[in-house]
Amino acid sequence: MKPIINVVGAVIISNGYILCALRSAKMSLSLHWEFPGGKIKNNETPKEALKREIKEELNCDIVIHSKVAETTHESDSNIINLSTYQAKIIAGNPEAIEHEELRWVNIGELSTLKWAPADIPTVTRLTHEI
Question: For 10, which of 18, 39, 72, 75 is 20 to 30 Å away at the CA?
Answer without folding.
Answer: 75
